């Protein structure tokens, strides 16, 4: 399809560039072909009246656990009532009961919410592989992404260390390193699309060092670099004392010693990192996915993003799973991330990054983390990944002078008016074109009730 967005009130091409006012934007197939005033609509072009609309680059989510949508809003998993160890002992047996159908419908659920709120590219860290659920879990996630039209990065995770050796993972969820590597290779060969505008890519993503053998990480590095794909894991969630007790060094040092670091690698969370660890990550090009909303529940401290920004660390934003964030709304995370930093600004040496920087983390920052030069900003030749907000509402009175800061500083509570992914409308006028949302929701609820009743 070819679309002409006519008379846009504002086009935010990038969080770092001046906002374009009263312009048109033309897409052709998967790419943007022109931005400017007075663009003519040729044959076959569908004209969309964008009067009053702000257009933004599609948001890029760099850390999530889709399957956890099936454990949202459960009283028995309330963090305020349980210690961390009690919580882990309660939730992992629930995770271990999930079926292949659960993983599919949970993925549809999470991606649908992301798309409604302007996210066009999502990385999911799928580390839960109960033996009874089979080996096609990530394949079903790809199926869900294709149904909704989402640009999807699949992180094939694993847990290999037995509970008897210090893992928190039930044996039903544990794999061998060889099983993990074989399925990573299969998924890369079957689904990875490295070319520009590729809709599905695969990353090698062992869950976390405390729940895996050392060889799981060293062999992940070997496989990923042989295949030319990215590496990902959890770091800096309070596990460093455990890693130090086991291996004589903290997590960042442990991973760097194994080569699990560099421009093709990023870590999730990182709220407990020391200044020297931040500096080493920045020097190696290793990136991070900041997930602000879990900080409310599980973080001992607010992630020092000003120090990370000052060090030149590559920063992106993630939603994280519903075990520690009960929604899949990256738009909301922009606001949370900014407000959390403001909360602790008086305790930090470096100033809070400007509000627009948080939009940058969720767009160009996410694109950088995922190794993509074709998404994250709006310009001719870039992917036609964008979302639109109709600002002709009382919600936006007094805010329209600064579209870049609007989302992180004010917050956007409504679903967006349109989401375009790879030149295709994935969400508009409160609907997923060609899909029956009520039917999808009923199917997901039925599987949930059957599995976790």
UniProtKB/TrEMBL annotation:
Pfam families from the UniProt entry: Amidohydro_1
The keyword Hydrolase belongs to this UniProt entry's keyword annotation: yes
Keywords: Hydrolase
GO MF terms held by the record: hydrolase activity, acting on carbon-nitrogen (but not peptide) bonds
Source superkingdom: Bacteria
InterPro entries: Amidohydro-rel, Metal-dep_hydrolase_composite, Metal_Hydrolase, MTA/SAH_deaminase
Amidohydrolase-related domain segment(s): 54-425
Membership in a protein family: Belongs to the metallo-dependent hydrolases superfamily. ATZ/TRZ family.
Name of this protein: Amidohydrolase
Species annotation: Rubellimicrobium rubrum
């Amino acid at each position: 399809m070819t679309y002409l967005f006519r008379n846009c009130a504002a086009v935010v091409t990038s969080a770092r560039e001046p906002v374009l006012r009263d312009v048109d934007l033309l897409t052709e197939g998967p790419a943007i072909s022109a931005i400017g005033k007075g663009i003519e609509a040729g044959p076959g072009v569908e004209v969309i009246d964008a009067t009053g609309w702000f257009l933004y680059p599609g948001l890029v989510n760099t850390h999530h656990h889709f399957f956890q949508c099936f454990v949202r809003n459960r009283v028995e998993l309330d963090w305020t009532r349980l210690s961390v160890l009690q919580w882990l002992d309660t939730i992992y047996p629930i995770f271990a009961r999930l079926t292949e159908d659960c993983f599919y419908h949970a993925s549809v659920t999470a991606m649908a919410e992301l798309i409604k709120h302007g996210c066009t590219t999502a990385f999911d860290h799928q580390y839960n592989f109960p033996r009874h659920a089979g080996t096609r879990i990530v394949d079903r996630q790809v199926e869900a992404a294709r149904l909704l039209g989402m640009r999807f990065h699949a992180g094939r995770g694993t847990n290999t260390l037995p509970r008897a050796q210090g893992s928190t993972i039930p044996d039903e969820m544990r794999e061998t390193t060889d099983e993990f590597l074989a399925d990573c290779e299969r998924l890369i060969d079957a689904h990875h699309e490295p070319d520009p505008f590729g809709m599905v890519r695969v990353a090698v993503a062992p869950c976390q060092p405390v729940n895996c053998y050392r060889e799981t990480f060293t062999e992940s590095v070997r496989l990923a670099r042989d295949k030319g794909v990215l590496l990902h894991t959890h770091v800096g969630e309070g596990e460093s004392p455990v890693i130090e007790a086991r291996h004589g060094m903290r997590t960042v040092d442990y991973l760097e010693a194994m080569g699990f670091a560099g421009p093709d690698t990023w870590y999730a969370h990182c709220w407990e990192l020391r200044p020297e660890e931040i500096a080493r990550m920045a020097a190696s090009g290793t990136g991070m996915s900041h997930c602000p909303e879990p900080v409310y529940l599980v973080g001992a401290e607010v992630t020092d993003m000003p120090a990370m920004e000052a060090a030149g660390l590559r920063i992106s934003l993630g939603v994280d799973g519903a075990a520690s964030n009960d929604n899949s709304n990256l738009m909301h995370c922009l606001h949370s991330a900014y407000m959390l930093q403001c909360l602790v600004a008086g305790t930090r040496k470096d100033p809070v990054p400007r509000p627009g920087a948080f939009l940058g983390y969720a767009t160009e920052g996410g694109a950088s983390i995922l190794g993509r030069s074709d998404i994250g900003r709006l310009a001719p030749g870039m992917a036609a990944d964008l979302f639109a907000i109709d600002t002709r509402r009382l919600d936006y009175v007094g805010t329209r002078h600064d579209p870049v800061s609007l989302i992180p500083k004010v917050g956007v509570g409504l679903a967006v008016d349109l989401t375009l992914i790879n030149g295709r409308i994935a969400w508009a006028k409160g609907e997923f074109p060609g899909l029956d949302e009520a039917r999808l929701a009923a199917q997901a609820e039925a599987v949930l009730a059957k599995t976790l009743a």
